[in-house]
Model the fold of this input.
Amino acid sequence: MSTNFYDKVAKKFGDYHSCHHKHITEYPDDDPEKVFKEKLLELSGKNKIALDVGCADGYFTLSVAPYFKKIVAIDQSKGMLNTGRKFQDEKKITNVKFEKKNAFKTGYKSESFDIVYSRRGPTPFTEAFRLLKPGGHFIEIDIGEQDCRAIKEIFGRGQGFCKWDISRLITVKKEAEQAGFRVVFIKEYFYEEYYASYKDLDIFLQGVPIFEDFDSDKDKRFLKAYATKLMTKKGIKLPRHRVVTVAKKL
Done:
């Protein structure tokens, strides 16, 4: 995902939460975002320092800040980081530091953090292993290979296009173990979102990197075809796929 995409979103919407669209979500199993947060907070502590890789607008970072001694939140988008700092000032939170860094080469000292986490951001296992103290954890929620497959097939492109047979769960587990971690939890989740209207789905796609080059006018015929095909009584169906992982540095 390019830095330019997130700068564009920051410029247009200010943050993800200003991109308003009506939708409902149905989980046949647990909500993966909830599971990710629960796993993170289970390992949190007032004496612990965490690194958030790919913090985006910082909204999530700031929501969990009270559970840590300090959080260093990094991203490569200046626009998103500026939004995070604005939220921080508004909420008067002092234990978060936003910095522009490459998640795969941060420049921080080895064994500087108790926890490294990524919420649908980069997966820098080797760098995370170096940065973690012995006994520390890397926690992430990642996008599965089947996420939004139907709409990508209609558009003929998109994030992870045509990589349907490459299991993200297997790949993540393998990469974590190769970096030296022991995977203590990993599970994939499938669920559905239903968008109230064509306009709601259009607005949603403008603010997420499913299609980094999404254009409401140029992609109208594709989106209309998808909306027609996946329209249900609940709304326009968008199948989602996530993988939650907790890995420990022994």
